[in-house]
């Protein structure tokens, strides 16, 4: 099977799965016969079309995107830097690892409420997105760096690689595949947690705020439409990042 | 000459050497069955392992080590693996070293795209390119046919460096020459 045939087959299968689930959704909506409980695809599509025609929609999407992507980038950078520090200095590892475990297991709602008190509603989604991403990346990078082939490290000792050369030629390429897949997973987490933070904090222009209003005014089609926007943006960003980060880094 | 004096070394509770005293001449082949400590002795000579007792003296400053298992970086190409041990201003020499080990056509191949014999020659090119005063060679011609082994042994001798080689094969020992130490 050639690559292009394989791609076409996969696309057709995905399309068939999409058609199946839209049919299930349509049938379920027809059964409930209530837009309040479960609006059907046409109602959601209508709402979405009317939303995209307003300038506010694009502003909300843009600001949410900036906040959450900003948080993602900050979390990615911090997680990577802290993992490097933990790998380099035992004292740093002793200090950082327990903190990461606490962050990972604390309910996101607790952090959202605390952050609301500390930094005000506008930056909470950014902070929360960073907080969700950081331990995932930290965990993946420290595990990958800890499992670097001991034989290769001994070779580096024999040939007297400098610490920088070891980092560039051994640690970064060894940890890169784990870093990349952790970053892709974390991007989905950043979106979920970031939008949840927006719903709870309602910054001025945000997708989460619109979701909150949809709930408040019982506009279920609007809730579905905004959710679709979140899913679509998350999917697109994930694909874009995966493409930018490449399959395998060549140092 | 490298001198081992009363050297004891153990991996955990498993002793490898106990009170080993040995003078290693500039050209020397270590032979003996598997598990007798040939590789451990090379690693001790390179300073990669520290003896629990005794002293090792006389090892030169710059040592090139050909490990038994190649230890090429799988994410780098053949040329990049050789260039990795060279200072920046000499990295361009990597291609020439690959030519010398008869791998001119494979500079961009990664280790998983090469045969065992090709990987061995990349590792050998890395050792020779590094230009150590002492070459520590652990089964250097493993996986090479007799004709290629002869040509590679000639390259090793051409380097002019001191050689300490571990090998099972009598023929390889004869190609390198020098004293044979039997670790029976």
In short:
Chain A is built from 10 helices and no strands.
List the secondary-structure elements of chain A in sequence, H or E. Answer: HHHHHHHHHH
How does the helix and strand content of chain B classify structurally? alpha/beta
The low-confidence runs of chain A, each spanning 5 or more residues with pLDDT under 50, are: none
CATH class of chain A: Mainly Alpha
Shape descriptor of chain B: globular
CATH topology grouping of the largest domain in chain B = Rossmann fold
The CATH architecture of the largest domain in chain B would be 3-Layer(aba) Sandwich
Number of discrete domains of chain A = 1
Corresponding CATH architecture of chain A? Orthogonal Bundle
Q: Average pLDDT of chain B, to the nearest integer?
A: 93
Rg calc of chain B: 16 Å
Structural class of chain A: mainly alpha
The major beta sheet of chain A can be summarized as: none
Q: What does this protein look like?
A:
The complex is a heterodimer of chains A (251) and B (184). Chain A has helices at 3-32, 41-52, 55-88, 90-105, 108-119, 124-146, 150-158, 163-201, 207-216, 220-245. With 251 residues, chain A is mainly alpha-helical. Chain A has one domain (40-245): MetI-like fold (Orthogonal Bundle), CATH 1.10.3720.10. Chain B is of the alpha/beta class and 184 residues long. Chain B folds into two domains: 1-62 and 132-184, 3-Layer(aba) Sandwich (Rossmann fold); 73-126, no CATH class. In chain B, helix 3 (94-100) crosses helix 4 (116-130). Classes of the chains: A mainly alpha (251), B alpha/beta (184).
